[in-house]
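Deviations from the work plan: none for this task. Representative record:
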Amino acid sequence: MILVIFLSLLPQSRQSLLIGILLGGLYAMMALGLSLILGVLKIVNLAYGETLILGAYVSYYSTQLWGLSSLVSLILVVPILFVFGVFIHRAMLTKILAAGGEPLILLFGLALALQNLMMFLWTPDARSIPSPLTTTIHVEDAAISLMRVVTFIISVLTVMLIRFVMSQTRFGLMVRAAAQNKDAAELVGINTTRVYTLLFGIGCALTGFSAVFTGILFPFNPVSGLAIFLKSLAVVTLAGMGSIGGLVISGLVIGIVESLGGYLIGGGFKDLFTYGLLLIIIIVKPTGFFGRY
Amino acid sequence: MPYLLHFMIMLFIYIVMALSWNLISGYCGQIALSHAAFFGIGAYTFALTLVADTHPLIGLILGGITASFFALIISPSLRLGKAYFAAITLLLAEVMRTVMINWRASGGASGLVLEPFPGHTLTNSYLGALLLMTSTLVATYIIVNSRIGLGFICIRENEYAAAAIGIPVLLYKVIAFCVSGFIAGVAGSYYASYILYIEPYSAFSFSWLGSAAFSCLIGGVGSLIGSIIGASIYLLVSEMFLGFGAFSTLIIGILIIVVVLFFPRGVVGALEKLVKRTFLSSQTK
């Protein structure tokens, strides 16, 4: 904490700090899908990173092959990933859960298959989705790309929107009921299977939404999925299961820690700070700080 | 003939990996996804000790010890339930990969080439691998048929019941995980001692984990013979697709999904069921 305050006073690290804050917003949105799936379905989606990268690739190729603007590709990516999520849940997860088995290996197999499918189809070369905004704005002596700021705003708005939907709408109510007590929810007439499937689909759709922005800001390749999964898991774990608003705060924390860590140690190792934080949180306070259940 | 020996050596290494994974994930029920990391840790430990002019046998054992040390470090996550444990094991895998790619001392992304040590011939490698596999098989057999092994199975079936009858659940889980890590580390060390070249992408490749998981799933989790059969099937399948490119790992991933969905007791288990149903039709199930 003291370190953070100290570093934020240094002019050289202020750029890193600012970038960390802006990225933190994206991380919160990135973690949204994982949080929903974990909180409601109680499944850690091991294939989450690969799902996100898949969305990024769909967006990338829609910009390359059909010349779509990256923002327009959102219209393509989100529904595709929604259908993908619904399919995965209906075809695979419901079977496993009905048989009382362990979805983990299934998800691992899925992650392995997706990762290598993408590697096979689209080569391990790094890709980057072209950014629709290229201006850079200057805040004091730091230079930030406008895209990062816009991404931050969109991310926070998205998280807030989902939180609103979950807490204020009828659908959100059904989802929370199904999450808290499956049998009781069914007793009052909620079709939990359909709710779960829809939620999984929505989780994947949100993943696709954030995938476009992630793909714009970061170069990605088929192997990037695992790092993204772990980072999102760190955000979700820090925030606590079931907490959506907390995602923003924990996203910011992770973003700042990662950025300042990268400033201290050097780019290649900056993910290690996030992983270390995840490990510490798991050991010290696995229920997170804002957890609801 | 040399190709056959190479094939057998790889088969033995795969069998050892499958047995190691089976210990923690098959018998004990805690799905661990870090065995690729253990393998790589073993490989790199061996390589670095060889560079430092130590005897290769010491390198082998040291590889196992280092891997089980890392297993020990992340073993607190065994408290948290299978999902988080699986995620943390993935974390170990990713951390190892990141560090090894960026670390100069271990050769960075281009890896290390090792000098062949005296006595390194194809035949000796084969005999060594055979010895490795046999001793691992014997050791695993002893473990799973011991009281601890029974405890593992109890933990897998119902953790709370196991704790209720006095089994020290966390301790047993940690033991299973660390022993499993040791075996996988030794496998990785042996691989390095045979191939004499390591680099981060292949040493930490998920295919080492995928092959182990696939072998155990095909053979039926919790069956030692099944792991051997499974590893053989895996090797045949991957040789069919000519080596370990992305396409063959893709097939493995798809097969894992198929096996989990349709053959929960493994192909061996499914065959058992089929035989029972055909010949013992008076009994249901």
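Chain A touches chain B at residues 43-44, 46, 92, 95-96, 99, 101-102, 104-106, 108-117, 119-120, 124, 226-227, 229-230, 233, 237, 268-269, 271-272, 275, 278-279, 282-283, 286 (CB under 8 Å).
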